[in-house]
Structures are given as C-alpha cells and as structure tokens.
Amino acid sequence: MRGMGRSLLPFTGKRMDQAELRRLENQCIQEEPPQCVAACPLHVDVKQFCSLMAARRIDKAWGVLAKTLPLPGVLARLCDGPCKAQCVRKDAGGAIEIDGLERFCADAAKPVGPPRPLPPRRKSVAVLGGGLTGLCAAWEMVRRGFGVTLYCAEPGRDLAALSESILPKGVLARELDGLRAMGAAVEEGAEPTPDLLESLLEEKDAVFADADDLPEAMRDFGEPDEITLGTRVTGLFASRAGETSAVFRAAAGRRAANSIERFTQGVSMVTGREQEGPYPTRLFTSLDKVQSVPPIIADGLYTEAQAREEAGRCLQCECMECVKTCEYLKHYQYYPKVYARQIYNNESIVMGTRQANTMINSCMLCGLCETVCPEDFSMADVCLEARRSMVERGKMPPSAHEFALRDMAFANGPKCVLARHAPGADASGYVFFPGCQLTASDPGGVEAAYGDLLDRLGDVGLLLHCCGAPARWSGREALFEESLAGLRSAWESLGNPKIIAACPTCIKTLKSGLADAEIVSHWSVLRALGLPEGAEGGTAALAVNDPCAARHDAALREDVRALLEQAGASLAEPELTGEYTECCGFGGLLSEADPELGRRVAEHRAAAREEDFVTYCVMCRDMIAKTGKRAMHCFDLLYPRAEDPAARPSPGYSARRENRVRLREDLLKRLWKEDAGNGSEPFEDVEVGFTDQAASVMEERRILKSDVQKVLLRARETGKRFVHGGTGHFLASHRPVVVTYWVEFEERGNGYLVHNAWSHRMRVKGGKA
Amino acid sequence: MSVIKVPEADAAGWRCAACGEELVPRAVELEYLDSVFNVELPACPRCGMVFIPESLALGKMNQVERLLEDK
Asked: How high does pLDDT run on average in chain A?
C-alpha cells in the first residue's frame, strides 16, 4: 500500500525458482486466516459458520462448530466470543455477536454424534480432575486415538452451578455420553489424591491434571510451562489454575493434548506451535464502502430471523484489494498467490501446453496492484520477469507482440525518425521528444506544440523516435537496448540537450533508459512558460485521467492539473485517480495479447465518470475514444485546432503510420526546407480503397493498408488470383514475411476496392501462400 | 500420415482466374512452428494455387496456430 513505485526489475531472464515462488506466495495475504479464526483460541471457522447461518443452513453451521469444539453442546453455549475484540466489523457497527449465534445454533440444529476417533495409538493417558478443562483434554485425546481414563469426583463439577438458561439440563450428560462413546473411561467418585497421581504416572504414558479441579495441596508441580503445559514432573502436564473463560479452558485442554502427543512420539515439544491459541494474522480487509450496521441484540435466544440477519452482517473477510481494482486480475478469477503458482508451473513445463501464457502477457504492468496491496505485491514484476524468461528461453508465442513490435520498428525506421537542431541553429539547449504515439495519433498537435516551443524557448531541437516501451513490455530486453542505442546516438548527435518529453510512458522509460539525460516533462515546461496563446479550458467540466505511467510522478500530475485549471478547465476526478489511477488497457501491450480484455478494460475506465475525459497520454485518449466515450488529449485544449476534438475517432493502425511519415515530411519541408527523400516503394503506388466493412475487419485483424497493397501489387505482377463466378470479385494472397494475407477485391479504374481481408500464420509448404 | 479434410474449406463459386479452372480438392502440407499437417484443400488443378477461405483461416487454422504457440 505504500506504493513503492519500484522501477521495472533488473533484467535476469531466469525462470522463477522455488524460493522465489514461496516468497511471492507468502507476500499475497488473501489466503491468510480471518481475524476471528486467528483470534479464536480453538480456531473455529467463524467465517464459514456465519456464511452458513446467513444462508439458513443451520445444521451445516452446527457441523462447523461440532468439528472444532470439544463437547460442542457445552462449549457453543459457554463461548464468550474472544474473537469479537478482533472482528473487523467492530468498526462498522459492532462486532458479530458470535456467542449469541453459537447459542442459537446449539439450540436449533439437529444434534450430531461425537467425531470418529483416529485409530488407536496404543498409548494410554490419564486425566486427573474433571472440570471443563479436564473434560476437554479427555475429548481431544480420545479423538486422537489415545486410551483415555478420566478420574474425578464428578465430571463437570464446575458447570453444575450454571443456570438452566445458560446450560440447559441434559446437555452436559449428552456430551459425556459422547465422550464415553468415543472410548474414554470415566472413573467417577475418584477424588484426586497424591497417591492416585503417583500410581497413574507409574502406569500411564502421560497424565494431564486439570489444576482447577485439584486440591490446593496437590498443585506442587510448579506453574506449568506456557507453551507445553509441562511440569517439573516428567510425563505430567497440567493446566494453569484460575482460567475463567470456557474457550480458553478448552484451549488449555487442546494444548495439553498436543503436548502429550508430541511427548509420546518423542518429538520436539516446542517447535512450530506459534499458531496454537490466538495468533496475529496478516489478512487485511478494507472497510471502504462497507455500511455501518449495528448488531442485533436479543433478550434471550435469537429467533431464526434474527440469527440470520446477525450472521449476514459478517463481512466474510478477505483481502482482494488488487482484484477489486483490476479488470485483468478479476478476469482470471483468482488472486496473485494463485497466479504466482500458475506462472511458476507454466515456466516449469517441458512438454505440454503452457496454460498461463496469455495471462502472463495480459498484465498491463500498470502498478496499481502494488499500490493498493497492503504487502506491495507487484503482478507487473512477476509478469514482466516471466515474459523476459519466456523470450530468453524461446518460449514466447511468436504472434503475442509481433504487431506492436513491427509498429515500433516502423516508428524507429528511416521514414519516421528525425533528429534536428531548431531550424537555422547548430546547437540545442533542449530537444522536444513527443513520442511515437502522439505523432501517430495527433501529428497536428505535435506540430503546434513544437512551433510553440520554438517561439517561446528558441533553441529547441526535435527528436522523433520511439522510447522503446513496447520492446520492454514484451520482455524483449535486447530489442529494448537496441532501440535505446539508436535513440541515444540521435540524442548525442544533437549534443546531449535536455529532453522535453510529452508522453508519460516516454518520460518513465527515458528516465530509466537514458539515466544521464536531463528529462523534463513538456507539461512542466509549459507551466513555467505560461499557457500557449489560444489555450482553452472547454465549457463543461472534464474528468481528468491520469495515465498509469504517471502513477508515481506526483509533479507531473500536478503540472497537468495546474495547466488545465489555468486554461479555465473545471476538473472532476474519477474515483481511481492519481497514484491509484487505472490503466486504459494499452499498458503492457494487453490489447495485443488479449484485444477483447483490452477493450473491456478501456470500457471500464471510460465508465469511471460521466464527463468527457481529458488526459495527457494519447494512448489513453485513443483507447477511451475507441469505446465511444468522448475524450481529449491536453493538446486539444492547449493547442485547439478542431471544432470538437473530443469526438475525434482514434486513427486506425495504417493511419497512425501514415501520420508519422507525413508529419516528418511536413516538418522537414516547412521548417528545414528539406525534402524528406522518402523514395516510395512500389507497393505504395497501388491505389486502393476499402469498403467500411473491410476497413473495420482489417483494424480488428491487425491488417495494414500496406499489407494489402503488397498483396495487390503481387497479384498484378503475377496474374495469380481467384475469381468468383457470382460477384466477379478477385481473391489474391501474399506472404511478405511470416504472415500470409488474403485480399478480396474488385478492380476500379487503375486501382482497387477491397471488400475483405484475412490472414494466417501457417504456411502452405512448397507453395506461395 | 492421413489427410485431414476440412469441410469449412468451401470454395464454392471460386475458380483460378489465370487458368480458368474450377478448383479441386488436393492434399497439401501446412506448416507452422516445426509442425506439418496434411490437409485436403481446394486448389487449381493446373497451376496448383491453393485456396484458403476466411472461415478456415480464422477458424481451425487459427486454433491450431494458437495451440502450437501455446498462446
């Protein structure tokens, strides 16, 4: 929950080992016991009990008590609910009235017989003294297969004084019958004496003494040990006198039984006993959004309706903090402890199907889980490390990130990359780095922003390049380094100027990748310079959307808000905002690995507020716009150009490429009076149009206009194509590299109209397709 | 290895434009990530050009690709 904001892990490329798995499993607290179960000295499953009671499954609920409590009919009525002090509900109306519920259940449920004891151990023990503690010890030991004889004047003597309303007649007798039925012998009228004790120590494997049912004179064995209840006398265990709580007396009986079991087996008396009796648990349960509801108080016993209502107040404690805030974690139906195990198993598979590949590749790496987790569990670290290991071992599915990486290669190719000093300058104090997605989505905004920086700051160069985030997200660290090396050499060619970066992901990536560069955000520069001329704040309130890359950059978030407010915008915050912001579904390349889940994540984010969105990451803008939600990038307000920018559709994949190329050409021509010198490749001259249907399926199937042009050129050159007798449409295919594209088209003058396109990765052996 | 028949590889109405021939079923080898499958697909009897319809590419072929990739 501290939100450490660790930068991405150092690259190891190793697969998860057992020790790492155990560390991760331990870090996720979802399976830790609830506060009530940990606080109960007998560890009754209070959560399960309440759940069954609320569902009116009273007999089942009784089964939960009877499984754990010795003499359940007695204990359930005498329990004073020590768990109530730890109940999470106590701060939202009041602790669950567990004692009242237990009493109701004991009364209403169908009685069950005593548990079936374990097979005989051939060890005989004596219990001396038949107070509640002694009875419980006898119960616990006979269950475990010890031969048990109970010596006392009168079993349950200390319970005799209880009123009928607390312990109805016959309840104790029924439980004593149960004790006998399990095989315990009860020697009534055997007042404990020193001689009896001595002979029992002689003849039995161990003896337990109920200190509260012994004469004072016999308690000369010293104060029993806190952990083992062992005494100075070997083989003699005893309770500590004076305990008044019935459950703690029962817990002493159980502790003694555990000790005697260890003693008779000759194993350590002390190791691993931390969770006997009450212990602290790490489970965290948030009271956020929990309505305060006061407990039901009854005069006597609850009615059934009251019991159900009271049990229904139980919060059914669990953590799930990360799952509650993340659509991806929700989608896979478990929680990080289970995911860590699945990822470990996935990595350990030698032969067979790796079930978790898509899960590993779908994490947005956005860091929200780590920020909300009470223990700082980071799925991003686990998934990214797993991706790196898959790449390293050649186990990454080839198609998982290929399209995004092709796009990155294009953005880093000669048609898109540019590194220039300001026009007419031969040095740069600053260089503007808009990032490859802003240039792809809003080239006009980039031109306006650069023009503004030139006007007001002067010696600002321009650097068009990808920051390498897609390579990093895909786990391809070598490719990331290669991209970074290209970026570094372009930056150095400009004399290592300060980098003004506009995209939050670029800022984050460059800060770790170009550690020696001084990187400032475009927004902090604009805040220092003042608003650009013509900036508008819009007329209606706007929902400000922090991108996940700004999660740990409070200054960046603050700069953007200050700028928007200066421009007159009235801002509303989504529930998850700032450090707790949600990813749009693009992060970590989710929308590549699982486009459907990516879309759902974007829709979830888009629904976070009614108002139009404004954000400072263009991928957030485009992902949200794709859902049909009105969304703007800050450039739309700071450098207004269009009538209704919030309605601008997200450009398709092909348009994004063309935007980058055209921006570079335009800037070179207009500012540097240069021709871009992009020799066009032959396929680019193929004139092609698309039906709406074709354009839509191509976007969904990640087929680019250039892919289609290559197919059409090929068909024109070879004449190889099919023709349909009915529609007259042609069909041709081509495999430029690793994907075969099929295009259904008709001829239109010198060009083509495309009706449909599809692709596959399988290859016809010996064939062209 | 037996030849896999794929009923969804329906080439109804299509013929080879270059040769003018109707398509006929032909056994071809499909290859992906070191796996090879013998599949009967429509092809031109003269030039051998193989036809892979949309339903096959997006259906069974895609399933097999994903399976081989463990995606």
From this structure: 94
